[in-house]
Sequence to fold (553 residues):
Amino acid sequence: MNKATITTQLRALAATGMVDEPETAPAPVVEEVEEGAKKKAAPPAPRKNGLLEVDPARKGVHLDVQLNGDQVVAAAQALDAEGMQLEAITGVDWINDNELELVYDYSYTGGEFFRVVVRARIPRDEPNISTLCDVFPSANWHERETYDFFGINFEGHPQLENLLLPEDSDFHPLLKDFKGC
Amino acid sequence: MSSQALSQNQEVFELNLGPQHPATHGVLRVKLVMDGEYVVDAEPVLGYIHRMHELMGENRTWAQYLPNMGRLDYLSALSYNLGYVELVEKMMGIEVPERAEYIRVLTTELNRISSHLLWFGAFVLDLGGFTPLLYAFDDREQILDLLESVTGSRLTYCYYRFGGLYNDVDDDFLTGCTQFLKRLRSRMPMYHDLVTGNVILRQRLVDVGPISAEMCRRYGATGPVLRGSGVNYDVRKNEPYSIYPELDFDVPVYNECDSMARYMVRMDEIEQSMRIIEQCIAQMPQGDIMAPKVPKMIKPEVGDYYHAVEAARGTFGIRTVSDGKNQAYRMKLRAPTFCNLSLFQEASKGMLLADALAFMGSLDLVIPEIDR
Fold:
């Protein structure tokens, strides 16, 4: 496992996937807030793709990478080649952005303390992403669990059936608009 | 168990192991395809005691979620307590008093011993030896009594608080721990004489259920399963937390990769946990057991956080997303036996059914933690 190699590869990956959006963001309009009116902070904009080196003492990971949905397999292959292991896959429902986030946690068991989190955001209406089963067999159950809870369709998964929920269930309890069944 | 022939000419047949079966220690079903006595395919079917702990994390406050941690892996609940309170302390920047840290480690290690003792008894029971279970439960009972005296519960502990502990330990408890260690030290040679050296046990375990280090990596297996495959990885050493860096203990590693190696790792871990407890008792400082300023309402900064601890069965990780409110936006629980069991399907191919069950026992499954 070489931290520098992983960092370089993931950074390159994050850079190639970036969609060049023209910088058209208008200057923030300072709204006049009436005295006494409750100040409401605007919700933070979703993060852009890229690699962040974060403080493990605070965040628990060393590298935090956001990629496009079609790049997670390439990232998994790069981490697999460096001897990292896939620790968990999960999702987060960002219902206000109309997006679902996939979170892949990688750790290293060879000695050094090194954790990487790879994330990708996919549209909530078309929750499709490629499976990692061909790279890490552990992805099989983690993806089935994520399919259970979020209804994310892992393309190419050999057995995308409910794992923890009953086999005939058609609800996804961790979606924020889930109202009970 | 029910069996069914697939066709007239085919030798293989389907066999259901569980959901209720003495060898599965919980409600786990394994769909077996058998060729005579040999396993062709074994697919674990999960979810029989799924309680959706992750959703519960999103609809109650950080403090209200504390008791859930005792209900994942009910055999080593304190490791899960520890992981969760440390995560919240990490998010909030709360410094824990040293005495509280020592008591946390002491009780967690006691809990680890009780978990390994239960596994030891139940595992040997799976292999057909009934008596060791009674001895192991007798020893484990002492730990439950000790922990009950400080935590107030025997199994589903909720002892740690953000910034400290629910209550302090007294001298009776520490004396009790010392006496218990003396007792267990005198019993360990007996266990090794009666069980570890037993020729029947060795024939059931040695060279059975090989899991390579590479297979562990591909499946994300951790804990004694990984250390029985020759990988020296223990979160307490590799990603130190609490006061573990100040304590002197070894990480048992065996290179044989078989069920016997996993057995030996856990037996040695009992010894190491005893060493840790002795050091905790000897070095226990006086002082407060709660941090002076812990906010009543926990509202962590926006962002996401990860924390991992070494539970009795492997790496327990929590990934949480906070949106700055008093409830988590997302709470992901990464359970160690979930990953450890996922390699069963591949590893059990071609095994005798009896060996597969011995192999499954050596993984030390706790179903409520797999199903969450």
